[in-house]
Amino acid sequence: MQDATYDQPAAETAKDPNTVELETPIRRGDKEITAITLRKPKSGELRGLSLTELLQMQVDALSALLPRISSPALLKADMAHIDPADMVAMGTVVARFLLTKAQQADFLNA
Questions:
Q1: CA–CA distances in Å: residue 85 to residues 20, 78, 88
Q2: Buried b / exposed e across 5-31, counting CB within 10 Å, b at 16+?
Q3: Per the structure, how many domains does the chain have?
Q4: What's the N-to-C CA distance of the chain in angstroms?
Q5: What is the pLDDT of residues 38-48, one digit of tens each?
Q6: Which residues lie below 8 Å from residue 53, measured CB to CB, with a gap of 6+?
Q7: pLDDT(58) > 50
Q8: Per-residue b or e along 58-78, where b marks 16 or more CB atoms closer than 10 Å to that residue's CB
Q9: Is residue 8 part of a domain?
Q10: Would you say residue 105 lies in a domain?
Q11: Which domain holds residue 37?
Q12: d(CA 29, CA 4)
């Protein structure tokens, strides 16, 4: 029996909603970081930070949190040079982490 072949469209890779494609890549020596993946912080990683300031995307609060939850890990020096558009994009991901599932659905549909 012969194997049937089907013409299937190329599978689209699902974009990770927690990965931010940087507008301005970060240079480290001869390497260039073009995307940062963020993970939901645990309560210990929020220590010393104000949830309100994170939801308001205040730069100081984000600059403290992002190195704790980013991959590749952002450095303090990186935080001083991040493109503002990239900071807003990462802040949006962080804000989504702090919402309930119901609030996230409203947030995504707004």
A1: 11, 14, 5
A2: eeeeeeeeeeeeebebebeeebeeeee
A3: 1
A4: 53
A5: 999 999 999 99
A6: 60, 61
A7: yes
A8: eeebbbbbbebbbeeebeeeb
A9: no
A10: yes
A11: 19-109
A12: 50
